[in-house]
Amino acid sequence: MADTIPIYGVRNRIEKNGPAIRDALRPDDRDVFVAELRIALAEADDTLDLDPIAAVVDKWWGQAVLTANP
């Protein structure tokens, strides 16, 4: 019974970080995610504000979870 996964459960958990999200996305989404993340990283490099990076990760993490758990 310990291996039983309820239908409402998430089977494939995705860590909330860039590499895990990138790996979970479909190739077309992956390219857009990487482009958006690179823009946010460049902005963070200029401003020292990490909020743009967090916003991109938050935006794409849900999609990565859904993609990994159809």
Would you mind describing this structure in some detail?
The chain is mainly α. The protein has one domain (18-68). 66% of the residues lie in helices and 0% in strands. It has 3 helices and no strands. α1 runs parallel beside α3. The two termini are 22 Å apart. The model has no long low-confidence stretch (mean pLDDT 90).
Report the β-strand fraction as a percent range.
Answer: under 5%
Taking all Cα atoms into account, the compactness measure Rg is: 14 Å
Number of helices: 3
Compute the separation of the termini in Å.
22 Å
SS-based structural class?
Answer: mainly alpha
| Largest sheet: number of strands, sense, barrel closure | none
Q: How many domains, as an integer?
A: 1
**SSE order, one letter for each helix or strand:** HHH
- Whole-number mean pLDDT: 90
Shape category: elongated
The count of DSSP E runs of length 2 or more, i.e. the number of strands, is 0
Outline the low-pLDDT stretches: none
